[in-house]
């Protein structure tokens, strides 16, 4: 009977110690965010608002999704947009230069501004 009372008393300090230990290690997502912020600040990648401003100036549509991908050692923004006729188009930009490197979708020309 005495052991049953001791076990709950030991669990709480052990749990508290485990939580304190885990708190000392940064989460991988936090590290990734800091690395990404540093890459933008140092000019290694173009800020996302610059890419979105370019898209808005050249294409009509609503942004549905944005991803930053690493492919073959290079970083790329992939931006999916919904066009005025319901078409979905994915634009791919080199994150280092901001250059548009690819598009896929239906009726992409129907999204171009100034036609």
Quick synopsis:
This protein has helices spanning 2-23, 28-41, 48-58; strands at 62-71, 74-82, 88-94, 100-105. With 115 residues, it is an alpha+beta fold. Residues 6-10 have low confidence and may be disordered.
Report on this structure.
By secondary structure, this protein is an alpha+beta fold. Helix content is 41%, strand content 28%. The protein has 3 helices and 4 strands; from the N terminus they run H-H-H-E-E-E-E. A 4-stranded antiparallel sheet has the order 1-2-3-4, with no helix packed on it. A hairpin with a 5-residue loop joins strand 3 (88-94) and strand 4 (100-105). The longest helix has 22 residues, at 2-23. It is elongated. The N and C termini lie far apart (84 Å). Mean pLDDT is 81; it is low at 6-10.
List the SSEs and their pairings:
Elements: H1 2-23, H2 28-41, H3 48-58, E1 62-71, E2 74-82, E3 88-94, E4 100-105
Antiparallel strand pairs: 1-2, 2-3, 3-4
């Amino acid at each position: 009977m005495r052991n049953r009372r001791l076990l709950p008393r030991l669990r709480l300090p052990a749990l508290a110690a485990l939580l304190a230990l885990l708190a000392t290690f940064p989460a991988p997502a936090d590290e990734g965010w800091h690395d990404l912020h540093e890459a933008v600040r140092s000019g290694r990648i173009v800020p996302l608002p610059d890419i979105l401003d370019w898209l808005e100036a050249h294409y009509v549509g609503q942004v549905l999704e944005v991803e930053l991908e690493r492919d073959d050692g290079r970083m790329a923004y992939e931006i999916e947009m919904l066009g005025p006729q319901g078409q979905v188009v994915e634009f791919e930009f080199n994150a280092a230069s901001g250059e548009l490197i690819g598009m896929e979708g239906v009726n992409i020309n129907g999204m171009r501004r100034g036609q």
